[in-house]
Amino acid sequence: MTVASLAPSELVILPLSAAMKQGSANEHEQAEQSAFMDALLGGRVSKAGYLAYLRTLRPVYAALESVGRDLAADPIVAPIFDAGLDRLASIDADLEQWAPGEDQSIESPAADAYAAAITESASWPGLYVAHHYTRYLGDLSGGQAVGALVNRAFDLDGKGLDFYDFAEIGKNKPYKDDYRTNLDAIGAELSETDRLHVVDEVCKAFQLNQGLFAELAGKLELPAN
Questions:
Q1: Which stretches of 123-164 are DSSP H helices?
Q2: CA–CA separation, 175 and 181 (whole Å)
Q3: Which of 202, 32, 186 lies closest to 132, judged by CA?
Q4: Which of 31, 33, 52, 187 has the fewest CB atoms within 10 Å distance of its CB?
């Protein structure tokens, strides 16, 4: 099913959180329906495939957290910045659990492109907000279902799943509600043109995610959607 896109004139009258969600609905759906995510959610990804997934995500979060620290005091970023969301240390802990002592680097043009886009978003903090939203709110939403499925598929008993554990922020739903409220407060201070730039960057972030998944599917010889 294809989600109908809203016109820019419709998006700019929405609160920023709603504009980001509705304006990127097509790209979000395409990423969710990728061959790799279908295989991961269907329990058809091997340990090697999941390791590749974690290793591919690592440079993305390294860039996200590096830029976030640099922009933490910026008035556009400050309302949503929270070190409790950081995932890099969790990814490293999971990689050590899954493949202790191994070289965790991976050759990934898609991850390099994604990390570069996040680094470039420091040029205007509103662009960084788009990447922060796409990754972290995704981790707090669909990412939790992925973690539960991985746990069952590999019979992990909760081990090697730190990436999905957000114990530092409390309960997910109230946190996400507050996050969206803060996004709306950010949006209220932006021009209509700037709000649309944020939405465009969310779409770009989902497209970069699609690139990651397509690359992973190719490595696993999964059919591309």
A1: 125-132, 138-140, 142-153
A2: 10
A3: 202
A4: 33
23 contacts: CB under 8 Å, gap ≥ 6: 5, 6, 11, 199, 200, 202, 203
Q: What is the DSSP string of 17-69?
A: HHHHHHHTHHHHHHHHTSHHHHHHHTT---HHHHHHHHHHHHHHHHHHHHHHH
Tens digits of per-residue pLDDT, 30-40? 888 899 999 99
Q: Hey, what amino acid is at 26?
A: N
Query: What tens digit of pLDDT does each residue of 6-27 get?
Result: 888 889 899 999 999 999 999 9
The model's pTM: 0.94
Return d(Cα 72, Cα 125) in angstroms, integer: 10
Residue 194 CB neighbours (<10 A)? 17
**Residue reference for tokens 């109908």:** 4
135: DSSP letter: I
Return the axis-axis angle of helices 192-219 and 25-32, rounded to nearest 10°: 10
8 A C-beta contact, residue 61 and residue 101: no
Alpha helices in 163-220 (DSSP H): 172-188, 192-219
